[in-house]
Amino acid sequence: GYSIVTFIPNDQAISNNRLIYRVAQLEEWIEEILSKEGLDDWSINWSNSNYCWKNKKRIDLCNPLLPSVFLHELAHALHKNPNFGDKHDGEWADIYDRLTNTYMVMRKVT
Predict the structure, then answer these.
(1) pLDDT in tens, 49-71
(2) Strand pairing class (43-46; 58-61)
């Protein structure tokens, strides 16, 4: 049968063992990851779309219930090409894979 797959923070990667239920907790989690990834000068903005603005050092997010979307946009921010804000190549996929393996765990909910 089918089951729902839910992402939760990786206990080994985040200093506190917590689930993300509220926007405030998500923002805390995001700030911690930005710092760990060397992007202390970046910010997030709650918007009506998801996008990485390299020139503004800002990630726009529209759904606080999907923390994996933040990691998707963070992979764009970490991509070495400064003009690569909305493309998905092998390097972007490697970065995204590293981020999800570092900061998230997948668990099945039945």
Answers:
(1) 999 998 999 999 987 667 888 99
(2) parallel
